[in-house]
Design a protein that fits this description.
The chain has 2 helices and 7 strands; from the N terminus they run αβαββββββ. By secondary structure, it is an alpha+beta fold. Strand 3 and strand 4 form a beta hairpin. It is globular. The two termini are 19 Å apart.
Length: 159
């Protein structure tokens, strides 16, 4: 039986490591300049911790923004926790790295997108306007409704 290198899984691990490194830097030094993050994650992931009212409002996925107001950022090996402001209601959340679907920093047009197993069957790449559109609550009213950041997709590495 031939053994194959699982490049897709290795790329996902490397991309999650990059997110962890960026968040550790932000934890230690704060967000520099105009940097801010749109983080879309799967709210059904078993290790996600969000308030019940958020889970009810966003039963499948949610996008949060780390920009002007956030507190208590704690970055761990498997995920991170942060307190964000949802309509003047501070809420702590915990997001495991493997629940993240997209991570975008529109200030430098950088983005990562993680393909789910069911997405691998889709042979058509998404149009740029469909790739990283933020949805859900934001911690800032000034955050743009969407971003045109470049998104790294693993489709080109799959057979």
């Amino acid at each position: 039986m031939a053994r194959n290198i699982d490049y897709g899984n290795l790329m996902h691990q490397a991309m999650r490591g990059l997110i962890r490194a960026v968040l550790k830097d932000v934890q230690a030094n704060g967000l520099p300049g105009a940097h801010h993050f749109f983080i879309t994650f799967d709210t059904t992931h078993p290790d996600v911790r969000i308030a019940d009212w958020l889970a009810e409002r966003y039963p499948h996925e949610m996008t949060v923004v780390m920009q002007h107001w956030y507190e208590n950022l704690e970055v761990g090996d498997d995920g991170f926790s942060v307190t964000l402001n949802f309509g003047d209601s501070p809420e702590p959340i915990y997001i495991p790295y493997d629940a993240i679907k997209t991570f975008v920093d529109p200030s430098v047009e950088f983005g990562l997108r993680f393909e789910a197993a069911e997405d691998e069957e889709d042979d058509e790449p998404l149009a740029p306007e469909d790739q990283a559109e933020p949805t859900g609550p934001r911690d800032s009213a000034e955050a743009p409704a969407r971003t045109d950041a470049d998104v790294v997709s693993l489709d080109s590495f799959r057979k």
